[in-house]
Amino acid sequence: MGDEALSRSAFEALYLELEKPVFNVVYRWVWNAEEARDVMHEAFLKVWAARARVRVETVRPLVFKSALNVAANRLRVRRLRRFLRFDSAEQLSDGRGTPETSLELAQRRKAIRDAVEALPEKLKSVVMLCEFSGLSTQEIAEALSVPPGTVGSRRSQAMARLETMLGPLSEGVAP
Amino acid sequence: MKRSELFEQHEPPPFGLERLRARMTEDRLALARRLVLVTALASGVVVAVLARPRTKPIELTPSAEALLRSPNDVEGLAGTVVAPMASSNPNVVLVRVSTLE
């Protein structure tokens, strides 16, 4: 793709390409499938609104950057609402924990969520983009406005913290 | 713990693109509605400013006007000179009063 403006068809193709990766990143902020989709849509709409200034070759990092900003803002609002008692933590579940879900699986998911949420924002952004976005280190650095070397060091720190909380991570497919 | 469990891939809810398209349309309509509202509000302000009642000039009673227009008629002021002065506003009468004490 060259330096041309983002057309509607190119934008929709971009959405289809990035829908799952962006969703999976944002999901680790809001932990609710419907809200994650809503955040993702808001991020894409921001990019679409700014299409006149968007360069096609840098649009992928921009989508993730926008999604992370929207997700972080949502979290701030959620914390404020909770602080003001307009909202309760119970409403944050997205119904993934069906009665059929085993207790052990539910506990493991909660442990994962607790460990991910315990990560500082900077480390969490890096590790989630590295795992889900499909972006190169250079593009992740661009999305987060940090030097490429910082991406590597933050990823190592994040993984070390996750292993401290969850135990050693092994390769392979989950049961 | 398995790494794949930590970074489990979730499927986004279905019909994402359709909902995004709907939101894009909604956004355009909302923008148009906002433009109409702002234009209507601005027009209302302009009309209100232009149509506001003007301050009417104070109407003098005939006797007061006669007195002011002939200041030399002032009586009982021995040693006082009253001289009318030019005024650009017909509703304002200027006089110079000089008293010898």
Architecture overview:
The complex is a heterodimer of chains A (175) and B (101). Chain A is mainly α. Chain A contains seven helices and no strands. Chain A has two domains: 8-77, RNA polymerase sigma factor, region 2, helix turn helix motif (Rna Polymerase Sigma Factor, Chain: A, Orthogonal Bundle); 85-166, Orthogonal Bundle (Arc Repressor Mutant, subunit A). Chain B folds into two domains: 3-51; 61-99, no CATH class. Chain B is 47% helix and 12% strand. Chain B contains three helices and two strands. In chain B, strand 1 (80-85) and strand 2 (94-99) form a beta hairpin. The longest helix of chain B has 35 residues, at 16-50. Chain A binds chain B through residues 12, 15-16, 19-20, 23-24, 27, 33-34, 36-37, 40-41, 44-45, 48-49, 108, 112, 115, 131-132, 162, 166-175, and chain B through 1-13, 16-17, 19-21, 23-24, 27.
Keywords:
heterodimer; A: 175 residues; mainly alpha; Rna Polymerase Sigma Factor, Chain: A; Arc Repressor Mutant, subunit A; 2 domains; 0% strand; B: 101 residues; alpha+beta; two-stranded antiparallel ribbon; 3 helices; 2 strands; 47% helix; rod-shaped
